[in-house]
Amino acid sequence: MAKKIPLRQCVGCGEMKGKKEMLRVLKTPEGEICLDTTGKKNGRGAYICRQKECLQKARKNKGLERSFKMSISPESYDMLEKEFDQLETE
């Protein structure tokens, strides 16, 4: 029997993809928003495709706000974009 691949929905484009293909955005118990590259950190996670367009879509359609049930500052989004850029250059 084939192993089931855990699917997650992108908060930007709404596409369902395998968990491994996506990035996890984390809301820590302290209420901070950051990228969880390991996928193992504690906190509430939301998933996003590895394309920058999806992060911009999530920003526009408030996808992360809905996932985390809180408002997210523009600074947090800017920080996520910086983290995104660093991942792309690695």
TrEMBL record:
NCBIfam families listed in its UniProt record: RNA_bind_RnpM (NF047356)
Organism the protein comes from: Waltera intestinalis
Domain YlxR: residue ranges: 8-82
Signal peptide: none
InterPro entries (UniProt xref): YlxR, YlxR-like_sf, YlxR_dom
Record-linked Pfam families: YlxR
Name of the protein in its database record: YlxR family protein
